[in-house]
Amino acid sequence: MPDNAADFVLDIPGCIGTVSDGRASLALAFRVSMDRFAGIAFSHVPLPVTPGNFWLLGAGNAQARLVPALSFVGVAPDQRRVTSDRLYVTSSGSQTSPETGATVQITAAPARVRVEAPNQPNLSVVSASGFSVEYRMVGMRGFGRQIQESPLGRLTVAAPSKLDHSGQVAGVARLDAGTVVTPCDQWLTECDSLVHRLLEILSLVQGRRLHWCIRELWHGEQWISADLRESHGSTQESEPLWYQNDLWPFVELAVTKYSERLREERGLGLAIEWLFAHSSYAEVKLASAQATLEYLAACYEKSERLSGSALTKAVFVDHVRPEMELALKRASAALEGSVDAAQASAAIELYGRKLGNLNALTLRERLFRMLDADRVPYAGLETPLKDAISARGSTVHGGGSSGSPDDLIRHIAVLREVAKRIVLTVLGYKGKYLSYLNGHDEVDLSAMTTTVVAE
Known about the structure:
Number of domains: 4
Shape: globular
Number of strands: 15
Order of helices and strands: EEEEHEEEEEEEHEEHHHHHHHHHEE
Strand content: 25-35%
């Protein structure tokens, strides 16, 4: 734990309360803090060993596959209530000294903590009017302050242009409800969803996964509560979509275009997540990029109620499959005397099991159908995209790429480029972005004609 007060984002010493494992509990004085890298810590003074608290040692040495969580409830000196139901013990131990005798102490990391002011309002009945909520981010950069009106109120986004470390607490998003009359708890849930979508878009822009670590609720100048979440760290920067500090066009895009329907039904949320699935192995990057495209195609088909088949199942089963089965019978008769009877029988049985797959569209066919329907620009990428899709088979099932290392890197670049174009096109984005297809190029999505892939 940092010793310097400047290293803390939030520090609440002197809490009095209890910690429990669901079966036993004990009273203690504790401290909860969050450092500047969004790490949450729970600490307490050593406790004299008694039969009533010796279970703490066992909590730190749990052998279960999933380590059970403890919980704590306490009150700070200023009467704020501090609670958590996700307290994970990282170590525990006992020691003996002449001054204190035998003592027990744990080191623990809460996954989440809630801090509340006394006399909490009932958020399910009060209007959101006059409330504001502020989210503090990890690893976000920007130019000054961006303001965007939204159905939930005025959104203000601000972040420093430089960071000492990519994992430090930096950046803020604030929503002021203004005169919004929605019940406050519903408004807060919708704010969480909006900020989640905002961070997905800004993560794509900055080339690293961003998240919030503290959410504070205010009513006017009165502080209401804070929710703390453990840090997952900011991922390694890779292929930012735009110059990282210029957030304005993408803040507007996230608020006005990126709906929950597009995130869930069209699969943009998970697709963006998978674009950050970094690996040091190019083969894993290839599989991840193709899985992203396959998922986007599946979500498109589901949202448009389209089949992944050439014909409907009923038409295929009633009219096409019977003819194919008759053809197999004729082929079986034709094989008599040409090959071993057991071999012929096994082959015909194998072909019969594959008949159902003949009606299924290939990933290539499904993908180009989606690209055409969404009007995603891909002129010039037809052959490189087909080659990249074909490369997955030899890479995943054959144990390695059939081409050169340069071919493999090119396939990854093509698949990722197409995935980004799908996301931007579905969002209705019309501006410029950074393409890594042929190195590092600034391209205009709305003015795109033919793309040439360098050899």
